[in-house]
Structures are given as C-alpha cells and as structure tokens.
Design a protein that fits this description.
Pfam families: DUF268. By secondary structure, the protein is an alpha/beta fold. About 35% of the residues lie in helices and about 20% in strands. It has two domains: about 40 residues; about 350 residues, Vaccinia Virus protein VP39 (Rossmann fold), CATH 3.40.50.150. It is built from twelve helices and 14 strands. Helix 7 crosses helix 9. The structure holds 2-acetamido-2-deoxy-beta-D-glucopyranose (2 copies).
C-alpha cells in the first residue's frame, strides 16, 4: 500500500517533469522552425524585424498604422546592410541549381519571345549606358502601343509559379551572368484576384493622411524604408498639385503620403480590384488602364509613384507569366503616360552594388539592372537610409 502510493507520488512528480521537458522541447523546436524559415532569406536582421513584416517578405498589411514609439530606435543601417549583402552573396553561390534542365513548353516560349519583340531595344540589356549620378543612364526607343497591346504581358499563368528559371531564358534573367540568382520561393497567386484592402473609404484614407501629416503613419515597411519615400515625394516636382499615378498598392498608405504632399488627384493601378470612395483617389485594374490608354481617356500624369512593387514583375510569384523584362516594361509603361519633365518616384530594393534575382520572391537592383529598369528616365535624387528599400526620383526626358 505504502510503497505503491509513494510510487504514484513519485510517478506524478516525474510525469510533471516529463511534461515540462516536452513543452520546452516543443517550444525550442518551433522557435528553430521560425529561425530556419527566416534563414532562407538571411536578409533578416532580427533587431530590425517585427515578426509580422519581414522586409524581404514584401508582404503588405491591411492598412497603414500609427508609428510605434520605438520605431526609430530600430535603425541600424550599416550593420543591416553589411549583413544583408554578405549573406546574399553567400547564398547566391549556387545560382545554377535554379536553372531548369527541362524544355519549356513551346507555346510558352513563343509567348515570351513575342513579348521580347514588342519590347524591342528596350529589352536588350546588353547595351552600354553613359555614367549617371547613381548608376549608368540608358536610353532606348519605346514603342508604347506595342508594350500596352501585347496580350501576353498581362495574361496570367495557369498553374503554380515555376520553381526554376527556364534554361531558354536563363541568359535574359541573369543578363548574361551578371545578375546572381538566389532561391526564395513563394506561391501567392494573386492576379485577377481581390486586393487585400478592397475598399478604401474616404474616412479611412483621410485618417491616414492626417497621420502622414503628423509623421505618424506607418506602412508595411520599416521607418528607414518609408522615410525614403517621403523624402522622394518632397523632391519630385510633379507631386504637388499634380495628377499622380500610383502603381501596385494594396493599402492606401502610399496614396496618403502622396495626397499629404499636395497631389490634386491620384490614380491607383493595382492587379486586385479596389473600390475607392475617396474623391481624390480613382482605382483601376490593368485591363481598364489599357483600354483607357488606347481610347485616349487616360490622359497624362505629372508624376508616377511606386514603392516595393515592380521588383516582383515577371517572376511568376503572383500568378503572372514568367517575363524576364516584366519590371523594365512596367516602368516603361509609366514613362509612356507621364508628361514631359514629369517625375518617377521609384522605391525598390536598390543597391549600389550587386544585382540579384531572388527567384521568385523579388529582385534586388544593383549597378547592372538599375540603368535598364529606368531606361529614358534621368536620375534626379536618391534617398537611402540603409533599409532594403530605397527611393530614387527620376525626371522624364524624351
Ligand atoms: C557607389 O559605390 C562606389 C564604390 O563601389 C562609390 O565610389 C560611389 O560613390 C557609390 N555611389 C553612390 C551614388 O552611392
Ligand atoms: C475608355 O475606356 C474606359 C475603360 O474601359 C472607359 O471607362 C471609358 O468610358 C472609355 N472612354 C471613351 C471615351 O470611350
């Protein structure tokens, strides 16, 4: 009797320890999973990240939010950038494993080659530029009608986003092996879907403009990334009193900053359809935009603003077709609808260094691709606070 009750007590004691041990093991395991997950893009400096938003993740939240008090204290630009570049270079070492050995579907090859034809010299990235303030300056004749008209540019791709780069277009993606390829895969089919914040009310946008005016509006990005957009807007002559095109925006935080800087009217172009009840914001999906371009009702813009969006174009991540020049064509299309001397405010992961395609998460722009991305746009101003996203302002030249 005695013995067995002691055993029971002992057992329950041991059981308790076993339980605690198991819980600790589980938590450690989960924590490691989390770390491993973020390891895949070792950009992540843990001091800089908030869990819900990894800068490399490019995920966008529902709405703009108010700045947290210690937001600015998270700045540590040099450490962040050094670590990021070192790690990117290391992981990009085995680029070639991302090259598909299988033949790409013949029809698909033809469609991509048709895009190349419509694009012409603009997509010939083997050309030489001339020195510019931040990187080389490149010019090309742009056939605006052709790049708005080619049906394959905006057509979605059926099936999951490809995991590897087709060998047929390897040279185009790597720009003749001058761009490193890194693996970082997403499947976020989104084309023709709904935007994450499908209704922008006057009240919610005005609320965000008020926060922007007080310097308290956060967006989906870190302080040292957002601030580059604000500085860029202040240096872009087309914003104040201007008619402004915003490209790729799921929540109206960029629009709020643009309106706060005095824009008269904003047109937002986004894949997912958005209903705006704000009198100064009109939204369009690509097919509407294209129709308005051709029937002449679109008109021209004084400025174009895009933040952390175009670096994804043509990588298939959002259900778009693989298109080695998707980003270049997207910027060229904005050139087509901008007034002479109008501004382009371009926020991107942009580096004064190495170029990467992080397939299929996004591109990091260095000296090699930046000139082609901004074909025909004159470099005017750069704001870089050491975050992944920097902002460059350009002026349209014809
Ligand atoms: C870019 O980096 C080079 C050194 O690699 C430096 O000389 C140059 O000033 C930098 N340019 C800009 C615009 O930061
Ligand atoms: C042009 O196309 C747009 C988009 O379909 C449409 O809303 C608009 O009414 C058209 N305008 C004219 C003048 O045809």
């Amino acid at each position: 009797m005695m013995t067995s009750s002691i055993t029971l007590v002992q057992r329950s004691g041991i059981f308790k320890y076993v339980l605690i041990f198991a819980v600790v093991v589980c938590l450690t395991y989960l924590w490691h999973q989390e770390l491993r997950h973020s390891d895949t893009n070792q950009l992540i400096s843990h001091q800089l990240q908030r869990k819900h938003h990894l800068p490399g993740d490019y995920s966008k939240p529902q709405t703009g939010q108010e700045t947290s008090k210690n937001d600015k204290q998270k700045l540590n630009p040099n450490e962040f950038r050094d670590k990021k570049l070192k790690e990117l270079t290391e992981t990009a070492g085995d680029s070639l494993k991302l090259k598909s050995e299988q033949d790409m579907d013949e029809t698909e090859v033809q469609k991509i080659n048709s895009i190349r034809n419509s694009c012409g010299q603009l997509c010939d990235t083997s050309r030489q530029g001339t020195p510019g303030p931040f990187f080389d300056h490149v010019t090309a004749p742009i056939d605006c009608k052709a790049i708005y008209n080619n049906p394959y540019i905006d057509e979605g791709y059926s099936g999951p986003p490809p995991k590897k780069i087709p060998k047929e277009f390897w040279n185009d993606y790597t720009m003749g092996n001058r761009v490193l390829i890194e693996e970082w895969y997403f499947n976020q089919i989104y084309l023709n879907g709904k935007a994450r914040t499908p209704i922008w009310t006057k009240e919610s946008v005005d609320g965000q403009i008020r926060l922007a005016a007080q310097g308290r509006l956060t967006g989906p990005y870190e302080y040292n990334e957002r601030i580059t957009l604000v500085e860029g807007l202040k240096h872009a002559p087309g914003i104040k009193n201007g008619r402004v095109l915003v490209v790729g925006s799921e929540s109206p935080w960029v629009e709020a900053y643009v309106l706060n800087e005095g824009a008269k009217e904003v047109v937002t172009l986004e894949y997912g359809s958005i209903k705006s009840t704000h009198p100064k914001i009109k939204t369009m999906i690509p097919s509407e935009f294209q129709k308005s371009f051709f029937n002449g009702s679109l008109g021209l813009f004084d400025a174009v603003v895009t933040f952390s969006s175009l670096e994804h174009s043509g990588l298939g991540r959002y259900g778009d077709r693989l298109n080695p020049w998707g980003d270049i064509i997207a910027v060229a299309r904005t050139w087509c609808v901008t007034k002479d001397k109008g501004s382009l405010v371009l926020g991107l992961p942009i580096e004064n260094g190495t170029d990467f395609v992080r397939f299929n998460a996004g591109r990091v722009y260095g000296k090699v691709r930046s000139p082609f991305l901004s074909t025909n746009w004159k470099q005017h101003f750069k704001s870089d606070h050491g975050g992944l996203q920097s902002t460059i302002v350009f002026t349209k030249t014809t």
